[in-house]
Amino acid sequence: MSHMNKVRIIGSYLSPYVRKVLVCLSIKGIPYEIDPIIPFYGNEEFSKLSPLRRIPVFTDDKVTLCDSSVICQYLEDRYSSSNFVSIYPNDIVNRAKARWYEEYADTYIGNIFIWQYYNEVVIKPFVWKKKSDQIIVDRSLNIEIPKVLQYLEENVPKEGYMFDEKHATIADISITSFFRNLFIANAKFDVERYPFTFSYVNRILSLSYFQSLIPFEKISIASPIPNHRTALAKGNAPISNETFGIDKPKPGAFSERPSS
Predict the structure, then answer these.
(1) Which of 95, 137, 183, 207 minimizes the number of CB atoms within 10 Å of its CB?
(2) Tens digit of pLDDT for each residue in 12-61?
(3) Where is the GST N-terminal domain (predicted)?
(4) CATH number for the domain harbouring residue 55
(5) Phi/psi class of residue 98: alpha, beta or left (left: φ > 0; alpha: ψ in -120 to 50)?
(6) What is the CATH number of the domain that holds 140?
(7) In Å, how far from its chain's centre is CA 171?
(8) What whole-number distance in Å separates Cα of residue 25 and Cα of residue 31?
(9) pTM of the entire structure?
(10) How far apart are CA 174 and CA 103, in angstroms?
């Protein structure tokens, strides 16, 4: 598949929405290069590509897209031959259900895991140098996140993947991408209370598609934000030649909601 045009992803390895797209690219065997910026550090050209200043942004030889669900559907449609693994179930009913889980993850789980919890314990102190709101953190851990865990406990498979598929689909990828951020933020839970949920999440995260991203995530965590490109390049990440990044954060219309 060396004849394929390499795609470019703009966005941080720490974003669950970027992670979702990178996993889909990996499953389909599509090479990529990445401009690993955090959206708050995007320049004016980035604003033109992503009017809401959200990540990921996807570009190839035909299109520029800036929503993870739209990007994944585009990948499925463009790379749909028998040479590429499908990231959506073939059955019409299961495909619709998979899209529901993707939407549930991107909106509801994303709002709680990222907007409420991760934003308070990671983004606010490290990007904006602001103190976390412990009331929001406690409510997330004690009320909102358990609601998600209970819903998943009643719906995820005890073995394998959603819908008895032979490989991970967009439902598995979308849900699990957000849990990785909780683990990065060292969130603590009563794992024994939700055994099926955490068994499922750990099963999906153990796949090579996710595991291959962890070294780049660790580099991003350990490096000052303006140094991400240099540090990741030294770690053999497929860094793009050009960047849309700047040295200081710049709030946008949705500066507290960086991904999509």
Answers:
(1) 183
(2) 999 999 999 999 999 999 999 999 999 899 999 999 999 999 999 999 99
(3) 5-83
(4) 3.40.30.10
(5) alpha
(6) 1.20.1050.10
(7) 13
(8) 7
(9) 0.94
(10) 8
Q: How many angstroms separate the CA atoms of 200 and 229, rounded?
A: 33
| Spatial separation of the C-alpha atoms in residues 23 and 145, rounded to whole Å | 24
Give the Cα separation of 60 and 153 in Å (integer). Answer: 38
Nearest Cα to Cα of residue 37 among 12, 56, 13: 12
Query: Is residue 103 located within the same domain as residue 24?
Result: no
Are 70 and 97 in a shared domain? no
E strands present in the chain: 7-10, 32-35, 57-59, 64-65
CB 35 within 8 A of CB 245: yes
Task: Please state, in angstroms and rounded to a whole number, the distance separating the CA atoms of residues 105 and 98.
Answer: 11
Contact between 86 and 94 under an 8 Å Cβ cutoff? The reply is: no
**pLDDT tens-digit map of 54-92:** 999 999 999 999 999 999 999 999 998 888 999 999 999
Q: Six-digit token pair at 224?
A: 């000052």
The C-alpha atoms of residue 170 and residue 168 are separated, in whole angstroms, by: 7
